[in-house]
């Protein structure tokens, strides 16, 4: 049974302390443990919940029928970022085996990274790193951890017994090795405990991905197939691209989203502005698309082209300017993405849809089912 927790989502000194988490119990059997293809389904055969926020009407269907709920003139905005093999085996100078998750590539060839330790067949965060420590990777590569990513840790007592989850670091590769080659040879897709087995990188890519840079798959678009996209275009539905490279998730602790690289092309911004002016539906495929568009959409509802690193956080207090519909997966209890969904819809609508998802046995996470929220 879902319940709402009225406790503040963040501490009082958070810049978005007013956010409150929608909390609920997610049964383990509703966690998608493998790709749908391994369950005997095609990509587009996952389940789809369609909900209308104006009247709380809910429809249960399969993703391959999404075209029945779209119409000519709709604009569907996709994120074309491709997933890196971002998990790298590492060891400390004392031989302790660890895993490095590459998250976000920053200017000056710096990285935001997460350090994890093995726990059976999976990993959990490792909190005992010191600034300046160098970890040793395969094939004579190294990664040096310079400073905590979170300003709070940089300003805190240096004698603290626990280090932060995220670090700013330098990755040093052999002189003749490119990052792409190194990750192809020694990296693997990031996976968490609910995915029990390793799967090839192809299972972590959308069919339209064309620029590698995400540490984790922008999974809301995973169910689209070339055939399905072609059929939607034939119906007069516009498919327009942008780019946002996703960083690592925080399943163990619900932290604020941090900076991610985005690029919104001029053609995409122009098509969105025309559609908005004409009153057409603007459907973001995933919260990554919303974050990128909200970064470049001004308070007067004009979307501009642009690129850079966004720190935009979409909350009910801030509001949403860029889109009026969203295709997304089902998010974990207290996840930060739920605040974005509540900004588009409202708490009551989300409660109804998540109650239905739990009761109907929808599957969570990147290999799970999907939710289309329409006006």
UniProtKB/TrEMBL annotation:
The keyword Protein biosynthesis does not apply. PANTHER family: S-ADENOSYLMETHIONINE:TRNA RIBOSYLTRANSFERASE-ISOMERASE (PTHR30307:SF0). Keywords: Cytoplasm, Queuosine biosynthesis, S-adenosyl-L-methionine, Transferase. This is Queuosine biosynthesis protein. Pfam families: Queuosine_synth. Transmembrane segments: none annotated. The lineage of its organism: Bacteria, Bacillati, Chloroflexota, Ktedonobacteria, Ktedonobacterales. InterPro entries: QueA, QueA_dom1, QueA_dom2, QueA_sf.
